[in-house]
Amino acid sequence: xxxxKPPLNKANLMLQQEAIxxxxxxxxxxxxxxxxxxxxxxxxxDVLDIISPIDGAILTSVAAGSKADMDRAITSARAAFEDxxxxxxxxAQRKKILIKLAELIERxxxxxxxxxxxxxxxxxxxxYKAESLSAAGTFRYYGEAIDKIYGxxxxxxxxxxxxxxxxxxxxxGAIVPWNFPLMIGSWKIAPALAAGNSIxxxxxxxxSLSLLHLAKLASEAGVPDGVFNxxxxxxxxxxxxxGLSMDVxxxxxxxxxxxxxxxxxxxxxxxxxxxxLELGGKSPNIIFNDxxxxxxxAKVSAAGIFRNSGQVCVAGSRLLVQxxxxxxxxxxxxxxxxxFKVGNPLDLSSQIGAVHSLSELExxxxxxxxxxxxxxxxxxxxxxxxxETGGYYMAPTVMSGVKVExxxxxxxxxxxxxAVTPFKDEADAIRIANSTVYGLSAGVWTSNxxxxxxxxxxxxxxxxxxxxxxxxxxTVPLGGVKQSGNGHDKSLHAMDxxxxxxSAWIQL
Length: 508
Ligand code: NAD
Description:
- The protein is an alpha/beta fold.
- The longest helix is centred in the first third of the chain and has 23 residues.
- Helix 3 crosses helix 9, helix 5 packs across helix 6 and helix 5 packs antiparallel against helix 8.
- Helix content is about 40%, strand content about 20%.
- The chain is globular.
- The strands form six sheets. A seven-stranded mixed β-sheet has the order 14-17-18-13-12-19-20, with helices on both faces. The chain has a five-stranded parallel β-sheet with strand order 9-8-7-10-11, sandwiched between helices. A three-stranded antiparallel β-sheet has the order 5-6-21, with no helix packed on it.
- The structure holds nicotinamide-adenine-dinucleotide (NAD).
């Protein structure tokens, strides 16, 4: 009997070390903002140095935006919206341009991925798929969707015609973090553009390069000038200016809860712009003693916390293990943690890349120290490694004996640090799982179908994985409950954020 081979992974096949090596050392010229279809310097001429987490060296610089730069981009976006070239373009035509953009992203996929890795440190294998290829897929998806969305006729009395239209909201402001800038940026830019809006994007100050390249590709694809603008710089300067603008209609955000709160304040102090927030998490991954395959559970759970150095919003950062399998399971997790090859993220052999910045690395190490002071044991990692490279690398870390009230249980690290807590039974698992302010993601491993359903119902999170961790698809919405946020990216549901429902009441 012949053994069926797994399908060849096209993305992996295309990603060759020689190809990466050909572009990884390229000198990068300083970057300006992208406003009204062109690259321009900051009003003040100021720049921000971009430090590569790979070696701690200065990679290039980007414009350090000012309020004047942000205002200029918003004015450009408004003018482009009002001239109707994009906002009133036939959806089928917008679709063609967005699909062209998807093709251009695929053409430049390696360059985009390497640019992103050089400023954010994600392992290239992951970045190539999760950043470049996923961004292309996102533009294709929303491009394909836009000429299939219909308005409605309301079931009124016959003497009246009630029409319900989807109208673009106008100017969308988007603020995104550094962990997956291209993927998360595209989740917002693609549906916003498909719906006919103009957009001003504010990337994280330390991860702007791939998004600036994306803006140029959009222009090349035929997105009119002013429709897609990127303003780089500090959140406290250009992000605040966007939040307080009277001319941004909707603000979409991914980042920390602290910044999310500020955006709500900005909205209240300005034009009451709608704010959609995708925030942090402290996601429980729950291992019952009846899990179908404990070895597989440990392997997948380790990847679910440690890939991209734990800098993943949905990372399974709290491991809840049933008491009678606790010690063996934690030993297996620690073995996986120690086995990961951490190294230069541009080497295909590295399974885990760099922590994004020195300050993030120091914050991660502080979490470990505080956890130990609170009584937890470090059973794997817990320290900086490869410091001779100048880069910011941390060993995957497993902390056991973490109590519900501990800092490490309650607060998001956003780094490769796993908090392990034992539980007695199902009720105990649910209590511990729901004991934080977050509700982004969760996992449950069990062979008991009824229990799986009960857990899906009882765990307060936006997504729950059963007998796996971290699977996702563009067709499935992503968003949190509780203090993990109030919006959803991905899927057709995300389109709702970028439309106003407009009704017409026609007396017949
Ligand atoms: P952050 O909140 O520090 O920064 C996010 C963005 O907000 C950046 O562009 C930053 O410049 C900007 N910003 C900062 N201060 C601002 C201000 N005063 N006004 C306006 N904008 C401001 O978050 P981060 O450290 O870049 O990202 C990590 C966080 O993002 C984690 O909490 C993580 O869980 C979360 N995240 C959530 C999701 C999700 O889908 N829910 C996805 C990825 C990351």
